[in-house]
């Protein structure tokens, strides 16, 4: 799939990494918005949560459905900068009135995107990558 972001076209490995990084960022944003519902004066942010979850699902689909996903995701586990970026966005955070866990939201979205493809290679590669994330967090 060809994708143009800021007039820069990329596909393959770059598209998969872009999708994974932005999916992690969207998972973090969704959990931060959800955390505003905790505490004595809850703030409802259903719209922000829905927007972040929609972005998360779109980025997960974009990454998983690329032809280069399997080869890229196998190399991604060895990419220390990528794993550090993902760890920064997906680490559980203790807030005043509860804990948020973006990793659970991210894993669920990536797993669902892989299941939709109905490809055993993609499912196995995604599962292996998500298991590697446990070592980073």
Series of H and E elements: EEHHHHEEHH
Q: What's the overall average pLDDT, rounded?
A: 87
Structural class of the secondary structure composition?
Answer: mainly alpha
**Number of alpha- plus pi-helical segments:** 6
Beta-strand fraction estimate: 5-15%
* Rg from Cα: 15 Å
Low-confidence segments: none
Side-by-side strand order of the widest sheet = 1-2
Instruction: Characterize the largest beta sheet: strand count, sense, and whether it forms a barrel.
Output: 2 strands, antiparallel
How far do the termini sit from each other? 31 Å
List keywords for this structure.
globular, 4 strands, mainly alpha, single chain, two-stranded antiparallel ribbon, two-stranded antiparallel sheet
Structural overview:
This protein is mainly α and 137 residues long. Helices cover 69% and strands 9% of the residues. The strands form 2 sheets. Strands 1-2 form a two-stranded antiparallel sheet. Strands 3-4 form a two-stranded antiparallel ribbon. β1 and β2 form a beta hairpin. α1 packs parallel to α4, α1 packs across α5 and α3 packs parallel to α6.
Task: Please give the structural blueprint.
Blueprint: E1 3-5, E2 8-10, H1 13-35, H2 46-64, H3 69-76, H4 80-90, E3 93-95, E4 98-100, H5 102-117, H6 120-136
Antiparallel strand pairs: 1-2, 3-4
Helix pairs in contact: 1-2, 1-4, 1-5, 2-5, 3-6, 5-6
């Amino acid at each position: 799939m060809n994708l143009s972001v800021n007039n820069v076209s990329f596909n393959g490995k770059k598209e998969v990494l872009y999708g994974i990084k932005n999916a992690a960022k969207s998972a973090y944003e969704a959990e931060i918005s959800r955390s505003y519902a905790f505490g004595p004066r809850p703030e409802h942010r259903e719209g922000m949560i829905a927007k972040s979850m929609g972005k998360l699902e779109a980025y997960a689909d974009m990454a998983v459905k690329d032809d280069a996903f399997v080869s890229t995701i196998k190399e991604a586990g060895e990419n220390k900068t990528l794993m550090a970026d993902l760890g920064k966005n997906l680490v559980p955070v203790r807030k005043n009135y509860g804990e948020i866990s973006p990793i659970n939201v991210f894993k669920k979205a990536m797993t669902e995107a892989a299941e939709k493809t109905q490809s055993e290679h993609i499912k196995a590669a995604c599962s292996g990558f998500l298991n590697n994330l446990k070592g980073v967090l």
